[in-house]
Amino acid sequence: MKKVSVSFTLNGDAVTAEVPVTWTLLKTLREYFDLTGAKEGCGVGECGACTVIMDGQAINSCLCPIPEVEGKSVTTIEGVANRDGSLHPIQKAFLENNGVQCGFCTSGMIMSSKALLDQDPDPTEEDIRKSIAGNFCRCTGYVQIVESVEMAAKEGK
Amino acid sequence: MIDYDYRKPGNLEEVFNLLREYGPEAALIAGGTDVMVKIRNTKKAPGVLVSLRGLKDLSYIRKNGDYHIGALTTHRMLEESDLVQKELSALYEGASRIGSVQVRNVATIGGNICNAAPSADTAGPLLVLDAQVLIQGPEEKRRVPITEFFTGTYKTVLKQDEVVTGLQIPAEMEQFGSAYWKQSRRKAMNLPILGVSVSIKLEGEIISDIRLALTVAAPTPVRAYKAEDFLKGKSLSDEALNEAGKIAASTECCTLRDSLRGEAWYRAEIIETYVPRMARLAAERRSK
Q1: Which residue is closest to A135 within chain B, CA to CA?
Q2: Pairing relation of β-strands B26-29 and B48-51?
Q3: pLDDT 10s digits, B236-274
Q4: Is there a contact between A63 and B4 if contact means CB atoms under 8 Å apart?
């Protein structure tokens, strides 16, 4: 199988991956970089557990062919907290509001929420719900999650 | 084992060269939200995926007289465009309800119509907005009305060596109001059970021109010509609209079928209900 060398910015660092050309960004994150925060739920772009931010936009990393990542900037859940380990306001808000139950959807939820708040620091509840419509949670029923994002937005003000 | 090569040319000429070099082994990929899913689900891949994402100049929404939309324009760009929101309401409604933000950030309008699903959310809006599909091959360019673009389920007039480069919507659509209804079980992340698109032009209370389109009502997205003809020249009344809804739901306009997502009788009721409602909404938008 043909391999490609792909150089991009990953959580602020310049990186290069040598992986099979058929790999997705998700597979590269998990199996080449050992960054297992992004999950494979459905693998077909329906559940959002694999959400990462690429060049400022939330995407499903499971649908992203790795050659498309060349030259891009990718942020995963591992790059959301500060370098000293202190948590991002969104992460704090999820903890405080019980926005996490089993945790499988959480990294994707936080990445979708972060993409929203980076673009629009003062979203309405509807904006929040639209932004996480592609992130399935099967535990909490979304209310605490939406409240977490609202709290993070308030904190950011 | 899924195996393929992946090429990302920087301009159309290189795309044509790759398509010539690899022939039927090559397939085009844009946002990848259909292609990657299909590869995963079928465990089969073409020999070479030729990515169009390097063609940066095919990503635009412009109005100079006509409306011009590049094939690589994402649904998210359409959703966030003031021009589309204000003047091409049906297209806004179609584009903004596809998948999720993550999907809309990468999925392109060119990809949506080239995939040619009977349920394509932008197809109905493009049908009632009278769009022309701009196609380019290695030797020549051609344009095909969207009414002739779909030839079957997942089939189009596109030849193996051709690429859809954009869509053009005539300036006269400025005088129309338009609307798209996506009937679905959830608010997001699903396909329509049935789609109703309308564009309408009024002179006073008289319908001077109207276009109706149905999705998931036939093997391809279709115009409901008989229902349009019935309404032209009539005044915008409940009686006329209800009758048009019945015509649109009949075998004169579509071939409804039972499927996992909905049964034919239900689809017929949705058409009968939403042709009048969307016509009213489109008319209201026109008057604003």
Answers
A1: B100
A2: parallel
A3: 999 999 999 999 999 999 999 999 899 999 999 999 999
A4: no
